[in-house]
Amino acid sequence: MKMNSLLILAGDGIGPEVMDEVLRVIEWLGDRRGIRFDVVEDLVGGAAYDVHGIPLHDDTLEKARKADAILLGAAGGPKYDNLEFGLKPERGLLKLRKELDLYANLRPAICFDALSGFSSLKPEIVSGLNIMIVRELTSGVYFGEPRGITPDNEGGRIGVNTQRYTTNEIRRVARTAFELARRRDNRVCSMEKANVMESGVLWREEVQWVGDNEFPDVELSHMYADAGGMQLVRWPKQFDVIVTDNLFGDMLSDVAAMLSGSLGMLPSASLGAPSADGCPKALYEPVHGSAPDIAGKGIANPCAAILSFAMALRYSFDRGDEADRIEVAVERTLSQGIRTADLLQVKGAKPASTRQVGDSVIGNLDESV
Ligand code: NAD
């Protein structure tokens, strides 16, 4: 039987440190649950630039095309700040997303009870929160033409970007959101600005079309994105899956991130079109960057990376049961007080190292079987 394949791109800064803990979880799944992966490791970002002079080698891209899923650590760092734009580490990641056409960005906003005191909102508003934001990632105003800065007739300048969406671009990301909702609480809320933007009118109509014609069993509602932002901080638990465009999704997913506490806790996925076997091209990565200020010290929080692997199990490998198991092991670790420095509130409390958090997650996984 063909083994599921994983391409691991640990990248820069704390990327390799947090990925080491993910590799231990992958090994644990093989040893204790008989779920084995064909794991290939390669370079991306600054690490790839140091060896190849470019942030993503063609061979690595080829491996990414062949892999069932890609796990990425982080790319970037001050060492590479003065490189020309096209060679910067982050371009490696952008190229991966573009070449694999990963158009749906999934950002869960989950607040573990043990961390409800970390949100900027009151614990009762965020405790137990579990929502999913689906952001369109490859089109919209960040890519639309015309764009640029040109002189005007009065000695000043004009800055132009174009918000542009096609039927196909909207329908495919809407489908991702509806599919996700079916595995959750069966509700989708679509957000745009149909009151002031034609692209918003089209967005609303096309999402409605997909809902009516393909997912009549899923509850669909619409909200203006500004009102959606307000509702996200007023009563976030009213949502299940939110689907929105690239620009609004960029902002709304960052707002939602703050609901759940630390950057070190946030996983993400970027999915493309489903292939013949129904499995989408997919890249999983923590939301945080390479954290150069703490890199090399062994103190980074590995939870976001471990939870990103849990997302891979759920969305690429149809192993929601094992994803649940890993999420529970992470939550237990936090409630046992084993936390890296970013999750410590009490002055004088001793932070755990990256490895100690990994040890505890593995220990909790052992206890779960
Ligand atoms: P960052 O996410 O790397 O760090 C922001 C702050 O959060 C830092 O104080 C850092 O120590 C802390 N932090 C982040 N992750 C943490 C973790 N797992 N545990 C504990 N603390 C953590 O963002 P930045 O400082 O703006 O960017 C640093 C570099 O990372 C830049 O080169 C940037 O371009 C790059 N970056 C890459 C990605 C990516 O690879 N997807 C995303 C964001 C930034």
Looking at this protein, list some descriptive labels.
alpha/beta; Isopropylmalate Dehydrogenase; 10-stranded mixed beta sheet; two-stranded antiparallel sheet; 12 helices; 41% helix; 21% strand
Describe the structure.
- 48% of the residues are buried.
- The protein folds into 2 domains: 1-110 and 268-369, Isopropylmalate Dehydrogenase; 136-259, Isopropylmalate Dehydrogenase (3-Layer(aba) Sandwich), CATH 3.40.718.
- It has a 10-stranded mixed β-sheet with strand order 2-1-3-12-11-4-5-10-8-9, sandwiched between helices.
- By secondary structure, the protein is α/β, with parallel strands linked by helices.
- The protein has helices at residues 15-33, 46-52, 58-66, 89-99, 123-126, 167-182, 198-214, 225-234, 246-259, 303-315, 320-335, 354-368, and strands spanning 4-11, 37-42, 69-74, 104-110, 130-136, 144-151, 157-162, 187-192, 219-224, 241-244, 267-274, 280-286.
- The structure holds nicotinamide-adenine-dinucleotide.
- Nicotinamide-adenine-dinucleotide binds at residues 14, 18, 74-77, 90, 93, 263-264, 285, 288-294, 300-301, 304, 340, 342.
- Nicotinamide-adenine-dinucleotide is lined by residues 14, 18, 74-77, 90, 93, 263-264, 285, 288-294, 300-301, 304, 340, 342.
What's the total count of β strands?
12
Protein structure class: alpha/beta
First-to-last CA distance: 25 Å
What small molecules does this complex bind?
A: nicotinamide-adenine-dinucleotide
Tell me the fraction of residues in β-strands, as a range.
15-25%
Overall geometry comes to globular
Rounded to the nearest angstrom, the radius of gyration is 21 Å
Which bin fits the share of residues in helices?
40-55%
CATH superfamily (homologous) name of the largest domain: Isopropylmalate Dehydrogenase
Any idea of the CATH topology of the largest domain?
Isopropylmalate Dehydrogenase
Query: Which residues sit in consecutive blocks of at least 5 with pLDDT less than 50?
Result: none
The CATH level-2 architecture of the largest domain is identified as: 3-Layer(aba) Sandwich
Please report the number of helical segments. Answer: 12
- Side-by-side strand order of the widest sheet: 2-1-3-12-11-4-5-10-8-9
How many structural domains?
2
CATH C-level category of the largest domain: Alpha Beta
SSE run: EHEHHEHEHEEEHEHEHEHEEHHH
